[in-house]
């Protein structure tokens, strides 16, 4: 009887052990199945995330390479990197702006204008991009559109309305320049340079001509007196400057009144003042005139050289050397 009971107990324990083992196997199977599902789910997510991260990395690499190439004046290579950025992330305003600036450096103004317009489509009121557009339009001698863009800038930045005076003068619109000067005066935004231009324009309508009686350069003088065109004035000023003639000051002053947007006249006027050791007046005229220089390295360098002479006359050797170096750098 006792043996039978022991056998029965052992049988029941083996049965419990089998059931317990089955339960463990069931739990493990469920866990394995759940873990496999989790891994499968994870595998289905990363590809898209990886692609985005890869694109972002490539974008950054090309963008910074473009900036590096631009810094060492390798503008074409910079453009190639920026084009790749534009493929990865189309219509990014920073990329479009940089493309415009690099095309501008290459002198390819139509492309520069195209890309700055695309950038402005993304952010129409961006000050730096609008100013870049004005610069590009000035290089293309498209003063009408440059005026439109500058007026937009002036709405939120009133002081920047000052540039409109120069743009109207370059566009041969004396009336428009006078109107802006009046508005700036009312707003108390007229600086010394613009007051100088205002005075010259005021004299322009009342200028009287006098016949030249001296013998030197009589042909060019008489030709200018007969027909006061810029071409005749330019020939006369060149001859007067070559001979260090004292009348260079007189005729360049008259030229500033007649042709207030011609940088060459300001250059000759600055030269005349330097010859007379009137260095502050020379600087004033040269600083007024250089604003009218557009995409002309030769005349820009001449301005810097005359500025260097003026600063040397004022015993400001540091600035004198600085402008001399600027001229040398341009003429390389």
Automatic annotation (TrEMBL):
Keywords: Coiled coil, Membrane, Repeat, TPR repeat, Transmembrane, Transmembrane helix. The chain crosses the membrane at residues 21-39. SUPFAM superfamilies: TPR-like. The keyword Membrane applies. Residues 167-204 form a coiled coil. TPR repeats lie at residues 93-126. It comes from the Bacteria. Pfam families: TPR_19. The keyword Mitochondrion does not apply. This is Tetratricopeptide repeat protein.
């Amino acid at each position: 009887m006792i043996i039978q009971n022991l056998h029965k107990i052992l049988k029941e324990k083996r049965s419990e052990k089998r059931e317990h083992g089955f339960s463990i196997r069931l739990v493990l199977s469920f866990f394995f199945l759940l873990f496999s599902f989790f891994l499968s789910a994870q595998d289905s997510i990363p590809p898209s995330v990886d692609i985005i991260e890869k694109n972002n990395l490539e974008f950054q690499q090309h963008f910074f390479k473009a900036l590096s190439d631009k810094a060492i004046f390798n503008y074409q290579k910079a453009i190639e990197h920026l084009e790749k950025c534009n493929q990865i992330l189309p219509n990014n305003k920073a990329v479009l702006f940089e493309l415009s600036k690099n095309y501008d450096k290459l002198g390819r103004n139509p492309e520069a204008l195209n890309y700055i317009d695309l950038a402005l489509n993304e952010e129409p009121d961006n000050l730096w991009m609008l100013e870049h557009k004005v610069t590009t339009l000035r290089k293309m001698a498209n003063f009408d559109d440059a005026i439109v863009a500058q007026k937009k800038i002036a709405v939120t930045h009133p002081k920047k309305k000052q540039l409109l005076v120069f743009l109207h003068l370059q566009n041969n619109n004396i009336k428009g320049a006078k109107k802006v000067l009046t508005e700036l005066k009312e707003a108390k935004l007229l600086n010394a340079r613009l007051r100088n231009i205002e005075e010259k324009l005021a004299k322009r309508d009342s200028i009287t001509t006098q016949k030249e009686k001296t013998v030197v350069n009589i042909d060019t003088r008489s030709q200018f007196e007969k027909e006061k065109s810029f071409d005749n004035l330019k020939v006369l000023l060149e001859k007067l400057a070559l001979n260090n003639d004292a009348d260079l000051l007189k005729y360049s002053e008259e030229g500033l009144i007649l042709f207030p947007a011609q940088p060459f006249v300001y250059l000759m006027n600055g030269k005349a003042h330097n010859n007379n050791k009137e260095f502050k007046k020379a600087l004033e005229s040269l600083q007024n005139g250089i604003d009218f220089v557009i995409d002309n390295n030769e005349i820009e360098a001449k301005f810097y050289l005359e500025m260097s002479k003026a600063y040397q006359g004022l015993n400001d050797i540091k600035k004198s050397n600085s402008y001399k170096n600027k001229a040398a750098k341009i003429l390389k």
